[in-house]
Specification:
The complex is a heterodimer of chains A (about 100) and B (about 260). Chain A is mainly β. Chain A is built from one helix and five strands. In chain A, strands 2-1-5-3-4 form a five-stranded mixed sheet, covered by helices on one side. In chain A, strand 3 and strand 4 form a beta hairpin. Chain A is globular and about 45 Å long. Chain B is an alpha/beta fold and about 260 residues long. The chains are: A mainly beta (about 100), B alpha/beta (about 260).
Chain lengths: ~100, ~260
Protein backbone atom coordinates (compact mmCIF):
# COMPACT_ATOMS: atom_id res chain seq x y z
CA UNK A 1 0.00 0.00 0.00
CA UNK A 2 1.17 3.48 -0.74
CA UNK A 3 1.86 6.16 1.83
CA UNK A 4 -0.93 8.41 3.06
CA UNK A 5 -0.85 12.18 2.86
CA UNK A 6 -2.17 13.84 6.03
CA UNK A 7 -2.00 17.34 7.48
CA UNK A 8 -0.68 17.68 11.04
CA UNK A 9 -0.74 21.11 12.63
CA UNK A 10 -1.11 22.72 9.22
CA UNK A 11 1.88 20.85 7.74
CA UNK A 12 1.47 18.15 5.11
CA UNK A 13 3.32 14.92 5.72
CA UNK A 14 3.27 11.37 4.46
CA UNK A 15 2.77 8.47 6.85
CA UNK A 16 2.62 4.71 6.33
CA UNK A 17 -0.78 3.00 6.31
CA UNK A 18 -1.78 1.87 9.78
CA UNK A 19 -0.42 5.02 11.45
CA UNK A 20 -2.63 5.87 14.43
CA UNK A 21 -3.54 9.14 16.08
CA UNK A 22 -1.49 7.98 19.05
CA UNK A 23 1.58 7.67 16.79
CA UNK A 24 1.09 11.20 15.51
CA UNK A 25 0.54 12.70 18.97
CA UNK A 26 3.65 10.99 20.31
CA UNK A 27 5.63 12.30 17.36
CA UNK A 28 4.34 15.86 17.67
CA UNK A 29 4.13 16.30 21.43
CA UNK A 30 6.96 14.02 22.54
CA UNK A 31 8.06 15.42 25.84
CA UNK A 32 4.77 17.16 26.65
CA UNK A 33 2.22 14.39 27.03
CA UNK A 34 0.02 16.26 29.55
CA UNK A 35 -2.86 18.61 28.90
CA UNK A 36 -3.22 17.70 25.26
CA UNK A 37 -6.28 17.41 23.09
CA UNK A 38 -6.66 16.22 19.53
CA UNK A 39 -9.02 17.22 16.76
CA UNK A 40 -9.33 14.98 13.71
CA UNK A 41 -11.02 16.76 10.82
CA UNK A 42 -12.55 19.26 13.24
CA UNK A 43 -13.90 16.66 15.69
CA UNK A 44 -12.45 16.03 19.12
CA UNK A 45 -11.07 12.51 19.59
CA UNK A 46 -10.74 11.52 23.26
CA UNK A 47 -7.37 10.29 24.45
CA UNK A 48 -8.68 6.78 25.02
CA UNK A 49 -9.48 6.47 21.31
CA UNK A 50 -6.10 7.61 19.97
CA UNK A 51 -4.45 4.15 19.76
CA UNK A 52 -7.27 2.55 17.80
CA UNK A 53 -7.86 5.43 15.39
CA UNK A 54 -5.91 4.84 12.16
CA UNK A 55 -5.43 7.72 9.77
CA UNK A 56 -6.93 7.93 6.30
CA UNK A 57 -5.59 9.80 3.30
CA UNK A 58 -6.38 13.52 3.56
CA UNK A 59 -6.99 13.51 7.32
CA UNK A 60 -6.38 16.75 9.18
CA UNK A 61 -4.95 16.42 12.69
CA UNK A 62 -4.57 19.19 15.25
CA UNK A 63 -2.76 18.58 18.55
CA UNK A 64 -3.31 21.46 20.97
CA UNK A 65 -2.24 22.40 24.47
CA UNK A 66 -2.34 25.36 26.82
CA UNK A 67 -0.58 28.61 26.09
CA UNK A 68 -0.79 31.91 27.93
CA UNK A 69 -4.08 33.57 27.16
CA UNK A 70 -5.97 36.21 29.00
CA UNK A 71 -8.89 38.52 29.00
CA UNK A 72 -9.92 38.30 25.43
CA UNK A 73 -8.50 37.08 22.18
CA UNK A 74 -5.27 37.75 20.43
CA UNK A 75 -3.52 41.04 20.94
CA UNK A 76 -5.18 43.84 18.97
CA UNK A 77 -2.14 44.16 16.76
CA UNK A 78 -2.09 40.48 15.91
CA UNK A 79 -2.73 39.56 12.30
CA UNK A 80 -6.16 38.21 11.33
CA UNK A 81 -6.83 34.61 12.34
CA UNK A 82 -6.21 33.12 8.92
CA UNK A 83 -2.70 34.52 9.02
CA UNK A 84 -1.91 33.29 12.54
CA UNK A 85 0.40 30.32 12.15
CA UNK A 86 -0.41 28.93 15.59
CA UNK A 87 -4.20 29.06 15.32
CA UNK A 88 -5.45 25.53 14.75
CA UNK A 89 -7.62 24.97 11.68
CA UNK A 90 -10.66 23.33 13.19
CA UNK A 91 -12.93 23.32 10.19
CA UNK A 92 -14.01 25.28 7.19
CA UNK A 93 -16.08 28.34 8.00
CA UNK A 94 -19.82 27.65 7.89
CA UNK A 95 -21.22 29.12 4.69
CA UNK A 96 -24.25 31.01 5.94
CA UNK A 97 -25.43 31.28 9.51
CA UNK A 98 -26.22 27.79 10.73
CA UNK A 99 -27.81 27.09 14.06
CA UNK A 100 -25.32 24.80 15.68
CA UNK A 101 -26.36 21.21 16.27
CA UNK A 102 -24.05 18.66 17.80
CA UNK B 1 -13.68 40.11 55.38
CA UNK B 2 -15.40 36.83 54.64
CA UNK B 3 -17.30 37.60 51.46
CA UNK B 4 -16.87 34.70 49.05
CA UNK B 5 -18.02 34.55 45.44
CA UNK B 6 -19.92 31.48 44.30
CA UNK B 7 -19.11 30.92 40.63
CA UNK B 8 -20.39 27.90 38.71
CA UNK B 9 -20.87 26.04 41.97
CA UNK B 10 -17.40 26.82 43.30
CA UNK B 11 -16.75 29.10 46.25
CA UNK B 12 -13.94 31.56 45.62
CA UNK B 13 -12.31 33.73 48.25
CA UNK B 14 -10.77 36.04 45.65
CA UNK B 15 -12.96 38.04 43.30
CA UNK B 16 -10.08 38.59 40.92
CA UNK B 17 -9.51 36.26 37.97
CA UNK B 18 -6.18 36.62 36.20
CA UNK B 19 -5.68 36.15 32.49
CA UNK B 20 -2.25 34.79 31.71
CA UNK B 21 -1.87 36.35 28.26
CA UNK B 22 0.90 38.83 27.68
CA UNK B 23 3.30 37.80 30.46
CA UNK B 24 6.94 38.13 29.44
CA UNK B 25 8.05 34.94 31.19
CA UNK B 26 6.68 32.13 33.30
CA UNK B 27 8.66 33.52 36.25
CA UNK B 28 6.97 36.91 35.97
CA UNK B 29 3.62 35.24 35.53
CA UNK B 30 4.08 33.10 38.62
CA UNK B 31 5.07 36.11 40.73
CA UNK B 32 2.07 38.06 39.45
CA UNK B 33 -0.36 35.20 39.98
CA UNK B 34 0.88 34.73 43.52
CA UNK B 35 0.64 38.46 44.28
CA UNK B 36 -2.85 38.69 42.75
CA UNK B 37 -4.29 36.08 45.09
CA UNK B 38 -6.42 34.84 42.16
CA UNK B 39 -7.72 31.29 42.47
CA UNK B 40 -8.71 31.02 38.82
CA UNK B 41 -6.59 31.88 35.78
CA UNK B 42 -7.31 31.68 32.07
CA UNK B 43 -5.30 29.85 29.44
CA UNK B 44 -5.74 29.55 25.68
CA UNK B 45 -5.36 26.56 23.37
CA UNK B 46 -2.88 26.50 20.53
CA UNK B 47 -0.92 23.97 18.54
CA UNK B 48 1.69 22.04 20.50
CA UNK B 49 5.16 23.48 20.09
CA UNK B 50 7.71 20.66 20.42
CA UNK B 51 10.40 23.23 21.26
CA UNK B 52 8.43 24.76 24.15
CA UNK B 53 10.09 24.65 27.56
CA UNK B 54 7.80 24.57 30.56
CA UNK B 55 4.08 25.12 30.45
CA UNK B 56 1.64 27.71 31.65
CA UNK B 57 -0.36 24.94 33.31
CA UNK B 58 2.69 24.10 35.44
CA UNK B 59 2.66 27.69 36.70
CA UNK B 60 -1.03 27.45 37.56
CA UNK B 61 -0.51 24.16 39.37
CA UNK B 62 2.30 25.59 41.47
CA UNK B 63 0.06 28.52 42.44
CA UNK B 64 -2.92 26.28 43.13
CA UNK B 65 -4.99 28.16 40.55
CA UNK B 66 -7.85 26.54 38.69
CA UNK B 67 -7.50 26.44 34.89
CA UNK B 68 -10.15 28.43 33.05
CA UNK B 69 -9.68 27.66 29.35
CA UNK B 70 -10.80 30.32 26.91
CA UNK B 71 -11.77 30.22 23.26
CA UNK B 72 -9.59 33.17 22.33
CA UNK B 73 -9.23 33.83 18.64
CA UNK B 74 -12.48 32.12 17.63
CA UNK B 75 -14.59 34.02 15.11
CA UNK B 76 -17.45 31.52 14.73
CA UNK B 77 -19.68 29.52 17.05
CA UNK B 78 -18.36 26.38 15.41
CA UNK B 79 -14.72 27.09 16.21
CA UNK B 80 -15.57 28.16 19.75
CA UNK B 81 -17.58 24.99 20.39
CA UNK B 82 -14.86 22.69 19.11
CA UNK B 83 -12.24 24.65 21.07
CA UNK B 84 -14.30 24.29 24.26
CA UNK B 85 -14.55 20.55 23.68
CA UNK B 86 -10.79 20.35 23.14
CA UNK B 87 -10.27 22.28 26.37
CA UNK B 88 -12.53 19.92 28.29
CA UNK B 89 -10.51 17.00 26.94
CA UNK B 90 -7.15 18.64 27.69
CA UNK B 91 -7.84 19.98 31.19
CA UNK B 92 -10.71 17.81 32.44
CA UNK B 93 -12.78 20.88 33.27
CA UNK B 94 -16.31 21.86 32.28
CA UNK B 95 -15.54 25.55 32.71
CA UNK B 96 -15.00 27.62 29.62
CA UNK B 97 -14.51 31.31 29.12
CA UNK B 98 -16.43 31.69 25.89
CA UNK B 99 -15.12 34.27 23.47
CA UNK B 100 -16.39 34.71 19.96
CA UNK B 101 -14.97 37.86 18.48
CA UNK B 102 -16.03 39.81 15.43
CA UNK B 103 -12.82 41.28 14.06
CA UNK B 104 -9.15 41.57 14.89
CA UNK B 105 -9.11 45.35 15.26
CA UNK B 106 -11.71 45.80 18.00
CA UNK B 107 -11.92 42.20 19.31
CA UNK B 108 -15.53 43.01 20.18
CA UNK B 109 -17.88 40.09 20.80
CA UNK B 110 -19.83 38.70 17.82
CA UNK B 111 -23.22 38.62 19.53
CA UNK B 112 -25.06 36.22 17.21
CA UNK B 113 -22.29 33.64 17.13
CA UNK B 114 -21.78 34.07 20.88
CA UNK B 115 -25.42 33.20 21.64
CA UNK B 116 -25.30 30.17 19.33
CA UNK B 117 -22.13 28.90 20.95
CA UNK B 118 -23.38 29.55 24.48
CA UNK B 119 -26.60 27.65 23.82
CA UNK B 120 -24.77 24.63 22.40
CA UNK B 121 -22.17 24.52 25.17
CA UNK B 122 -24.74 24.86 27.97
CA UNK B 123 -26.61 21.94 26.37
CA UNK B 124 -23.38 19.93 26.43
CA UNK B 125 -23.00 20.51 30.16
CA UNK B 126 -20.35 23.22 30.13
CA UNK B 127 -20.15 25.95 32.75
CA UNK B 128 -20.19 28.79 30.27
CA UNK B 129 -18.62 32.12 31.25
CA UNK B 130 -19.21 34.33 28.22
CA UNK B 131 -17.18 37.40 27.33
CA UNK B 132 -19.88 39.78 26.16
CA UNK B 133 -20.51 43.33 25.17
CA UNK B 134 -21.75 45.82 27.79
CA UNK B 135 -25.26 45.28 26.43
CA UNK B 136 -27.89 44.59 29.12
CA UNK B 137 -30.18 42.81 26.65
CA UNK B 138 -27.45 40.48 25.42
CA UNK B 139 -26.38 39.80 29.01
CA UNK B 140 -29.93 38.82 29.91
CA UNK B 141 -30.18 36.51 26.90
CA UNK B 142 -26.94 34.79 27.90
CA UNK B 143 -28.23 34.31 31.43
CA UNK B 144 -31.53 32.92 30.12
CA UNK B 145 -29.60 30.39 28.03
CA UNK B 146 -28.07 29.04 31.24
CA UNK B 147 -24.65 30.67 31.37
CA UNK B 148 -23.00 30.46 34.80
CA UNK B 149 -22.03 34.15 34.72
CA UNK B 150 -21.97 37.07 32.34
CA UNK B 151 -18.70 38.83 31.63
CA UNK B 152 -19.23 42.24 30.04
CA UNK B 153 -16.31 44.25 28.79
CA UNK B 154 -15.35 47.58 30.29
CA UNK B 155 -13.45 48.62 27.16
CA UNK B 156 -11.86 46.69 24.28
CA UNK B 157 -9.46 43.89 25.18
CA UNK B 158 -5.97 45.11 25.96
CA UNK B 159 -6.96 48.77 25.53
CA UNK B 160 -6.63 49.75 29.18
CA UNK B 161 -9.60 52.02 28.52
CA UNK B 162 -11.30 51.36 31.84
CA UNK B 163 -15.08 51.35 32.02
CA UNK B 164 -16.50 53.21 29.05
CA UNK B 165 -20.18 52.72 29.85
CA UNK B 166 -20.75 52.54 33.60
CA UNK B 167 -24.48 53.17 33.13
CA UNK B 168 -24.88 50.03 31.02
CA UNK B 169 -22.82 48.06 33.50
CA UNK B 170 -25.19 49.15 36.28
CA UNK B 171 -28.17 48.05 34.20
CA UNK B 172 -26.58 44.64 33.72
CA UNK B 173 -25.83 44.32 37.44
CA UNK B 174 -29.36 45.39 38.45
CA UNK B 175 -31.03 42.63 36.47
CA UNK B 176 -28.51 39.83 36.68
CA UNK B 177 -29.31 36.64 38.55
CA UNK B 178 -25.84 35.21 37.92
CA UNK B 179 -22.46 36.70 38.82
CA UNK B 180 -21.36 39.65 36.69
CA UNK B 181 -17.62 39.67 36.07
CA UNK B 182 -16.07 42.64 34.35
CA UNK B 183 -13.85 41.22 31.63
CA UNK B 184 -11.47 43.33 29.56
CA UNK B 185 -10.57 46.98 29.50
CA UNK B 186 -9.06 47.39 32.95
CA UNK B 187 -6.01 49.65 32.80
CA UNK B 188 -5.14 50.34 36.40
CA UNK B 189 -6.28 49.69 39.96
CA UNK B 190 -8.93 52.41 40.10
CA UNK B 191 -10.71 50.81 37.11
CA UNK B 192 -10.97 47.51 38.99
CA UNK B 193 -12.21 49.25 42.12
CA UNK B 194 -14.79 51.14 40.04
CA UNK B 195 -16.08 47.92 38.50
CA UNK B 196 -16.66 46.48 41.96
CA UNK B 197 -18.22 49.72 43.20
CA UNK B 198 -20.67 49.56 40.30
CA UNK B 199 -21.77 46.18 41.59
CA UNK B 200 -19.76 43.66 39.61
CA UNK B 201 -19.15 40.42 41.47
CA UNK B 202 -15.62 40.03 40.16
CA UNK B 203 -13.02 41.28 37.72
CA UNK B 204 -11.09 39.40 35.06
CA UNK B 205 -7.99 41.12 33.75
CA UNK B 206 -4.76 40.20 32.03
CA UNK B 207 -2.86 42.90 30.15
CA UNK B 208 -3.16 45.47 32.94
CA UNK B 209 -0.98 43.16 35.04
CA UNK B 210 1.03 41.11 32.58
CA UNK B 211 2.08 44.12 30.49
CA UNK B 212 2.70 46.45 33.42
CA UNK B 213 6.29 47.44 34.04
CA UNK B 214 6.17 45.51 37.30
CA UNK B 215 3.51 42.81 36.93
CA UNK B 216 3.71 41.49 40.49
CA UNK B 217 3.33 44.98 41.96
CA UNK B 218 0.35 45.73 39.72
CA UNK B 219 -1.16 42.34 40.59
CA UNK B 220 -0.99 43.26 44.26
CA UNK B 221 -2.57 46.62 43.49
CA UNK B 222 -5.41 44.86 41.67
CA UNK B 223 -5.94 42.50 44.60
CA UNK B 224 -6.37 45.47 46.94
CA UNK B 225 -8.50 47.38 44.41
CA UNK B 226 -10.97 44.54 43.96
CA UNK B 227 -11.25 44.07 47.73
CA UNK B 228 -11.60 47.80 48.34
CA UNK B 229 -14.20 48.22 45.61
CA UNK B 230 -16.22 45.32 46.94
CA UNK B 231 -16.08 46.68 50.48
CA UNK B 232 -17.13 50.12 49.28
CA UNK B 233 -20.05 48.64 47.35
CA UNK B 234 -21.34 46.69 50.32
CA UNK B 235 -20.65 49.53 52.76
CA UNK B 236 -23.21 51.79 51.07
CA UNK B 237 -21.73 54.96 49.70
CA UNK B 238 -23.11 58.46 50.37
CA UNK B 239 -25.25 59.96 47.64
CA UNK B 240 -23.50 62.22 45.15
CA UNK B 241 -24.83 65.81 45.21
CA UNK B 242 -24.03 69.16 43.62
CA UNK B 243 -23.41 71.31 46.72
CA UNK B 244 -21.46 70.95 49.92
CA UNK B 245 -22.97 69.34 52.98
CA UNK B 246 -21.04 70.16 56.17
CA UNK B 247 -20.20 67.25 58.36
CA UNK B 248 -19.64 69.54 61.36
CA UNK B 249 -22.64 71.02 63.17
CA UNK B 250 -23.21 74.80 63.33
CA UNK B 251 -24.57 74.66 66.87
CA UNK B 252 -22.17 75.62 69.67
CA UNK B 253 -19.94 77.59 67.36
CA UNK B 254 -18.16 80.25 69.51
CA UNK B 255 -18.49 83.97 68.70
CA UNK B 256 -14.97 84.99 67.70
CA UNK B 257 -15.72 88.46 66.27
CA UNK B 258 -13.44 91.37 67.41
CA UNK B 259 -14.78 94.13 69.67
Amino acid sequence: MSELTVTVGGQQRTVPPGTTLHDVVTDVAGAQPRHLAVALNGEVVPRSAWPARTLADGDRVEVVTAIQGGAGGPHPHAPPPDARPDAPHLAARPAAHPRWSS
Amino acid sequence: MDDPLTLAGRTLTSRLILGTGGARSFEELEAALTASGAEVATVALRRVDPQARGSVTDVLERCGAQVLPNTAGCYTAHDAIVTARLAREAFATDWVKLEVIADGRTLLPEAVELLDAAEALVDEGFQVLPYTNDDPVLARRLEELGCAAVMPLGAPIGSGGGIRNPANLELIVERAGVPVILDAGIGTASDAARAMELGCDGVLLASAVTRAEQPAAMAEAMRHAVSAGRLARTAGRIPEQRYADPSTTESGRPDLSPR
